[in-house]
Amino acid sequence: MDKLTDDVPGCYYNRTVQFFYEHSGKNISAHWRPRDYVVVSLGMGVSVIVILANILVMVAIFINRRFHFPIYYLLGNLAAADLFSGIAYLHLMFHTGPWTIKLSKNQWFVRQTLIDSSLTASVLNLLAIALERHQTIFTMQVCLHSKMTNRRVVLLIALIWGLAIFMGLVPTMGWHCLCDLENCSTMAPMYKRSYLVFWAVLNLFTFSLMVAAYTRIFVYVRHKSQRMSQHTSQIRHKETVFNLMKTVSMILGCFVICWTPGLVLLMLDGLGCESCQVLRYEKYCLVLAECNSLVNPIIYSFRDTDMLQTFKRILCCLCRRGDAGRKDTLSGMRCNTLEQENMPYMSVCSNVVIILYVTL
């Protein structure tokens, strides 16, 4: 976007980032304020936790052959998207506040593209998991895992990332306001207001599809459990329905809590609400949306007993290696695996744990 030639009439290609911020009313402070320290510190803390939690999920899925099924591949891709989201948000924290004024327009668009692409990938993965569960429940009532082939999973994952990257690049490809200054948004001063409305509506539509899928799953399973309750105790029937309601409520509730404030702000800014003071809550809503990348591994993975056991094995290996110190070698370590796994799994676990330990 940065050009050395003269501006085209009606366009502002050669103006600085500060020019667009000042025009939109989003003034950049040259000095660090207490609010800036709070936002950056909170954002960095959340980003680091998001990165570590999702690395743990990805390693667990990689080393445990019990997780080599379509649903877990999608969970691993969700963890990868959330990991990318954590990295993108950490990058944002090092290019926000007073640092923003030093950015070129290209650097600003890269910063925004990383955020938009990562968050879009996370949302699309949540939708893919909801649709996979829906397909599994209604076509394979007995088996936990769908018949989706590995090829289809790879194609689905590629489609998710393709759409996410495309959505992140849309403003750079032309949906910006460098030649339409009057329609620049306040929260993203070089994005058109119409793009913010489009992005918010698209995510709300995605959320509605998730609600529809999980609601249909709940109604179906509740109906089946009522029929099965004729052959089982009433207590077990109530526990089944309650557990399903709890899981679905957590999934949808966390998504609503984390995303709704930010989407509402985007809608208000896109619609040109000048009295809404969107800038006052912008950073906090972005941190809240990022928190969804933290609760995702908790909801989808930590509630899985096998996944929890794998986490314990990984963390146990890390702790034992830390206690042993640099004097011990890999041959002196015993990396216990899941009780159901065989000896070949142990060597894979050991190698991955060493890589994870060095990385962390």
Automatic annotation (TrEMBL):
<dbReference type="GO" id="GO:0009986">
    <property type="term" value="C:cell surface"/>
</dbReference>
<keyword id="KW-0325">Glycoprotein</keyword>
<comment type="similarity">
    <text>Belongs to the G-protein coupled receptor 1 family.</text>
</comment>
<dbReference type="GO" id="GO:0070915">
    <property type="term" value="F:lysophosphatidic acid receptor activity"/>
</dbReference>
<dbReference type="GO" id="GO:0005768">
    <property type="term" value="C:endosome"/>
</dbReference>
<dbReference type="GO" id="GO:0005886">
    <property type="term" value="C:plasma membrane"/>
</dbReference>
<dbReference type="Pfam" id="PF00001">
    <property type="entry name" value="7tm_1"/>
</dbReference>
<keyword id="KW-1003">Cell membrane</keyword>
<feature type="transmembrane region" description="Helical">
    <location>
        <begin position="71"/>
        <end position="94"/>
    </location>
</feature>
<feature type="domain" description="G-protein coupled receptors family 1 profile">
    <location>
        <begin position="53"/>
        <end position="300"/>
    </location>
</feature>
<feature type="transmembrane region" description="Helical">
    <location>
        <begin position="241"/>
        <end position="268"/>
    </location>
</feature>
<feature type="transmembrane region" description="Helical">
    <location>
        <begin position="114"/>
        <end position="132"/>
    </location>
</feature>
<dbReference type="InterPro" id="IPR017452">
    <property type="entry name" value="GPCR_Rhodpsn_7TM"/>
</dbReference>
<feature type="transmembrane region" description="Helical">
    <location>
        <begin position="37"/>
        <end position="64"/>
    </location>
</feature>
<feature type="transmembrane region" description="Helical">
    <location>
        <begin position="153"/>
        <end position="176"/>
    </location>
</feature>
<protein>
    <submittedName>
        <fullName>Lysophosphatidic acid receptor 2</fullName>
    </submittedName>
</protein>
<keyword id="KW-0472">Membrane</keyword>
<keyword id="KW-0675">Receptor</keyword>
<dbReference type="InterPro" id="IPR002277">
    <property type="entry name" value="LPA_rcpt_EDG2"/>
</dbReference>
<keyword id="KW-0812">Transmembrane</keyword>
<keyword id="KW-1015">Disulfide bond</keyword>
<keyword id="KW-0297">G-protein coupled receptor</keyword>
<keyword id="KW-0967">Endosome</keyword>
<dbReference type="InterPro" id="IPR000276">
    <property type="entry name" value="GPCR_Rhodpsn"/>
</dbReference>
<keyword id="KW-0807">Transducer</keyword>
<dbReference type="InterPro" id="IPR004065">
    <property type="entry name" value="LPA_rcpt"/>
</dbReference>
<keyword id="KW-1133">Transmembrane helix</keyword>
<feature type="transmembrane region" description="Helical">
    <location>
        <begin position="196"/>
        <end position="221"/>
    </location>
</feature>
